[in-house]
Amino acid sequence: MRDDVPPSERPEPPIKTVYLPDSRYAVGPFAAMSAIFREIFQFRSHALTLFSNDFKASYRGTTFGILWNFILPLVPISVYLLLVNIRVFPAYDGMEPALFLAFNVMFWYFITGLVLRPIDVVKSKAASSMKTSLPLSVAISSSFAQLVFDGLVRLGLVVVLVFVFRDWPSPNVLGLIITLLASLAFCLSAGLILSIFNMAYSDTQRLVGIFLQYGLFLSGVIFPMSSMGRLSVLEVWNPFAVFVGAARDYIFIGSYAHPEAIGIWSFISLMMLVIGFRFFYTMEQRVRGLT
């Protein structure tokens, strides 16, 4: 091109469009986990604000006020304790029936909450998240704060029952830690994966709800697995039954009858955790409508 041509008369250079893949798809599993934890740490004040607002909204305008946040978590346990008092349930493997049920129900609602809350949060926040830079992982973490609060309220009742019935724990600390970590990893990763699938197939949430309703009775929460005849095989094949039974036995008995089941499901949980975090991280922007 001649140098004496004025800049205003020079032709525009051709526009080149370069297509690059979404950088998140190139992220490895451990980098995805690290990125999610950084998001949560960066927006930790927002997560606290979300929890505070939801916590206050749950009792705003009611007569009993904040007491509802302590009463409602105990309602499911109180129903089963009522059935215990009218002799609906038999003795449980040498444990006081009320304590057996209270612990199982407490632990069941906690681990299943790790599955259900990501599904609920992603479904309810996906549309509004398009208008803000707040990651969905932060909204999920704030909902877990409420889950932890409810769990602590139920745990308080379990502690009271321990003193009432003098059924003192004989904890196996190592076994308990492994069980807790495995159950957290399994249920959290399942919740993250299912929350994405629910955005594509809205029946997912309903199917999960139905599955968990039956699972309450097929996981040794209400009746010992040993008393369920042919279904007792689920004691080692159902991860929820393994986690509930192992956590209870490692606390109150000190040993678990199927340690190999804990080992197998711990390995599966670790694999699911790696897959679940990466899947959620890579698909989040698509769910938010940003890609």
First-to-last CA distance: 40 Å
Q: Helix count?
A: 11
Low-confidence stretches: none
Tell me the fraction of residues in β-strands, as a range. Answer: under 5%
The amount of helix comes to 55-70%
Task: Describe the largest sheet.
Answer: none
Quick recap of the structure?
With 291 residues, the chain is mainly alpha-helical. The protein has helices at residues 29-42, 44-57, 68-71, 75-85, 97-129, 136-165, 173-200, 203-218, 234-237, 239-252, 259-287.
Describe the structure.
The structure is a single chain. This protein is 68% helix and 0% strand. The protein contains eleven helices and no strands. Helix 5 runs antiparallel to helix 8 and helix 5 packs across helix 10. The model has no long low-confidence stretch (mean pLDDT 84). The chain is globular and about 95 Å long. It has one domain.
Which secondary structure elements does this structure contain, and how are they paired or packed?
Elements: H1 29-42, H2 44-57, H3 68-71, H4 75-85, H5 97-129, H6 136-165, H7 173-200, H8 203-218, H9 234-237, H10 239-252, H11 259-287
